[in-house]
Predict the structure.
Amino acid sequence: MMPLLGLGTWRMGESGRRRAAELDALTFGLSLGYPMIDTAEMYGEGVAEEIVGEAIKGVARRPFLVSKVYPHNATRSGTVAACERSLKRLGVERIDLYLLHWRGGARLEETFEAFHRLRAAGKIGDFGVSNFDRDDMEDAARLDKGLNGSNQVLYCLSRRGPEFDLLPWMRERSIPLMAYSPLDQGRLLGKPALKKLAAEAGCTPAQLALAWVMAQPGVVTIPKSSSRARVEENWGALDVELTPALLAELDRAFPPPETRQPLAML
Ligand code: NDP
């Protein structure tokens, strides 16, 4: 079980000038009820985790926390050390879901061994991967039969490649897909078809794009915004009603894949 909608943090912590706005957006998001935050040791080289740590300090209900280890740190001992640094920056004793950011660097066996150690020690609730295509997932599942802690990949209306084989494969095994860049980093929002359908549905393009992602079975998502207004707008995606007719229009405007497409990665 994991929350359907969370706050992304990529690009946060990269500039001291933006820090206050980023912290404010996260704090405000938590006050609205966002139940999850996604971060990584890579974001702002640790500073994004520090900002998340500040945002969650003293909140009544701590959100579900997701963080990621760099592949070059993902050795047997390196993963444990990286996780401990992340815990310190976040100011918590446990990360709910800890992911390998992308494949490469250390051998997967070593990373998984470290994940098991961290889970046994209570430092992470569960573990998973990110940017794994179907063949990578098959390798991962061969190594770890119990793997079901999520695969975080690029997935949105304009990039539906995972629907061809990765997402069905994950659904069969009850592994949630965590969709990153659900707004295609903002690029999706100017598409005329999305604007028209959103206006007809009485919502904004961002709300429609997010509602569509969340309507896909087995998919959760983590849009990022450093603005209070957009954090609030994105939260409104939970109230969008997707009728069968609207879903069909979206399929016409943003067709599902007819052939296998290699996983896109940012
Ligand atoms: P998103 O699709 O979430 O888009 C973020 C961009 O869209 C920002 O520039 C933001 O600007 C803008 N934006 C957000 N909401 C709105 C809105 N309502 N109207 C207009 N513009 C809006 O892209 P991300 O790449 O950030 O993906 C989300 C999260 O996924 C990341 O933050 C990160 O946590 C994770 N991720 C993981 C990756 C991985 O390899 N595992 C790779 C990429 C992302 P502003 O902040 O100014 O509002």
User: Anything to note?
Assistant: The chain has one domain: 16-189+216-240. The CA atoms of residues 198 and 204 lie 5 Å apart. The pocket of NDP is lined by residues 8-10, 38, 101, 130-131, 152, 180-186, 189, 206, 222-227, 230, 233-234, 266 (CB under 6 Å).
